[in-house]
Amino acid sequence: MKTLRRVLVPLAILPLKNITYAQKKDSIPLKVRAFFADKIPQARNFNVEYTFVTPSSFSSQLQGQDLPDNKVKSLQQMKADANIYFIKNRSWLLSTTLNYRYTSIRNENPVIPGIGSEENFHYHSEAINLSYFSRLFKKTAIYSASISADGSDQHFERIRGLVTASLILKVTPKTKMTLGLAGIIDPSTQIPVLPIFTYENKFNNGWVLDVLLPKKVLIRKDISSDGRISLGTEMDNTSFYTYRNNNTYEFRQAVLNSGAIYEHNLGGNFIGTFKTGLRTNINSRAFNKQDSFNDYIWKGNYKPSFYFNVGISYNPFERKRTK
Questions:
Q1: pLDDT of the residue at 11
Q2: What does pTM read for this prediction?
Q3: Minimum mean pLDDT range among 16-20, 36-40, 101-105, 118-122
Q4: What is the C-alpha to C-alpha distance for residues 137 and 183, in angstroms, rounded to an integer?
Q5: Which of helix, strand or coil describes residue 280?
Q6: In the chain, how long is the greatest CA-to-CA distance?
Q7: Any bridge partners for residue 165, and if so which?
Q8: CA-closest candidate to residue 43, choices 288, 322, 314
Q9: Three-class SS state of 146
Q10: What does the buried/exposed string (b/e) look like for 9-22 if buried means 16 or more CB atoms within 10 Å of the residue's CB?
């Protein structure tokens, strides 16, 4: 049962980040246990990372009016995350997720006249997550609910909710597949309901296909006893609040990071990560906090650029495991 909980916990706490599970709580074959054992777990208890993005040009509009073409001369981000469990038992999981992101942007010209071309932003969010493990159609089902608050270094700004329901369709020593739905309780959200589909398949040549829609599509392979490489695409986002003329605005940007990821077990439950590749903008908008994402006052279209990311995580709640 302890092995099953270690497999289910990452799904419950991070429903849109990673999924690994077992199908039946009291009949897990030894081969399945060995398959789930991972010296580089995808869920991290504590994580710190730094991202540098190369310069890129962009065009933008302010209240429907075209602005002169501009250029991001420097974009740097520092991110810290913590995932902490309070209660873990056969049926329930209670946890908290804490996030902080510092973003520094230096543009060639001010985006808004009268405002400086270099700005620094602080963003944080805190969430309480509750998950319930049950059976549905003779398969394992996981239901979760989260309530979160976010803000800047000046104010708390929003309270959001998230509910998910996932059903484990298949789990074998080679293949895992799940299907679910996520509902976002937030008037400003662009898409209130999202399907969740995960598929993981281990090929005979050592490569593993890891699909988590809409988050990522990766193929990965262990290249040493402590290191692995991944190739593919991950979705990332940047959010922060800015204040102009007694109004509060929210900036949201969604990007696709396509390239390579190298992870290495450093020992002592520490994992180092290096990522690099092409960063492609999906959308970038700023809108009044009282409005929705679709009622934006500013939008930008950025040309692709390269990114470099280095991070280190610490997993004190993970037992040392060997494959």
A1: 43
A2: 0.83
A3: 16-20
A4: 22
A5: strand
A6: 66
A7: 143, 181
A8: 314
A9: strand
A10: bbbbbbbbbbbbbb
